[in-house]
């Protein structure tokens, strides 16, 4: 199983260092068999010398360097020895208006650099309410043009309507949707969307679920550690 924590823009740089230190100590003593990923905010990135989990970037512009005010680029990630990245998260698609074309541009750039890519897809409530056929078409459109045979690809399905809402898709809904997505590729497939300690086990027990991308429930390191230990 893959357990990934998306810390979004929470925590100061000092708090991120404390978070990673606590996580490293716990994983060293308890030796999880799972793959653990942590995505801190930009100011929390550093050259973390950890052995039992991977630190990745939540976002980066598809260039080595350049005039892209407010962004972070390949050069900075290389400085921190970071080669894992989230691409296509719904908050960047919806709130920051990133288009499918721009997201694919990011994918191609960081694929060319050999990065492990967690590629996020997911539908809105409007599309969910139109039925499974519409959901299928929409999710497939988000995957269109992405190299689904890329060895370092992880796909994360996050229904937009459940992210941060406290409303989790039912096991039946998750199972049905992951089954549809699974027909497109054999890479690891994660679920995200209000995952927490009380539902993580039933979610990861779903046939085509290879792990979870956790948002708010991973903010406190003790909660994230608890969820790792439950799997």
TrEMBL record:
Example of a GO MF term: triose-phosphate isomerase activity
Subcellular location: Cytoplasm
SUPFAM superfamilies cross-referenced by the UniProt entry: Triosephosphate isomerase (TIM)
Pathway in which the depicted protein is active: Carbohydrate degradation; glycolysis; D-glyceraldehyde 3-phosphate from glycerone phosphate: step 1/1; Carbohydrate biosynthesis; gluconeogenesis
Pfam families: TIM
Keywords for the protein's UniProt record, in alphabetical order: Cytoplasm, Gluconeogenesis, Glycolysis, Isomerase
UniProt enzyme class: isomerase
Transmembrane segments: none
GO terms of biological process kind: gluconeogenesis; glyceraldehyde-3-phosphate biosynthetic process; glycerol catabolic process; glycolytic process
Protein name, entry field: Triosephosphate isomerase
Organism for this UniProt entry: uncultured Campylobacterales bacterium
GO cellular component, one term: cytosol
UniProt-listed Gene3D superfamilies: Aldolase class I (3.20.20.70)
InterPro entries to which the protein is assigned, alphabetical: Aldolase_TIM, TIM_sf, Triosephosphate_isomerase, Triosephosphate_isomerase_AS
Similarity annotation: Belongs to the triosephosphate isomerase family.
């Amino acid at each position: 199983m893959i357990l990934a924590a998306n810390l979004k823009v929470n925590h100061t740089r000092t708090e991120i260092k404390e978070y990673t230190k606590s996580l490293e100590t716990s994983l060293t003593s308890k030796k999880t068999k799972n793959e653990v990923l942590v995505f801190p905010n930009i100011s929390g990135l550093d050259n973390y010398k950890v052995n039992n989990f991977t630190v990745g970037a939540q976002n980066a512009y598809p260039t080595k360097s350049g005039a892209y005010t407010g962004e972070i680029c390949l050069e900075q990630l290389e400085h921190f020895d970071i080669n894992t990245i989230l691409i296509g998260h719904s908050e960047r698609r919806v709130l920051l208006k990133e288009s499918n074309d721009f997201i694919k541009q990011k994918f191609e750039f960081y694929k060319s650099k050999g990065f492990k890519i967690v590629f996020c897809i997911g539908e809105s409530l409007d599309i969910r309410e139109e039925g499974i056929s519409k959901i299928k078409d929409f999710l497939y459109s988000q995957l269109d043009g992405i190299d689904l045979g890329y060895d370092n690809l992880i796909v994360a399905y996050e229904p937009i309507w459940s992210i941060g809402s406290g409303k989790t898709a039912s096991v039946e809904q998750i199972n049905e949707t992951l089954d549809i997505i699974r027909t497109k590729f054999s890479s690891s497939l994660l679920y995200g969307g209000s995952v927490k300690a009380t539902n993580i086990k039933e979610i990861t027990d779903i046939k085509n679920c290879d792990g979870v991308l956790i948002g708010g429930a991973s903010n406190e390191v003790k909660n994230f550690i608890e969820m790792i230990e439950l799997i």
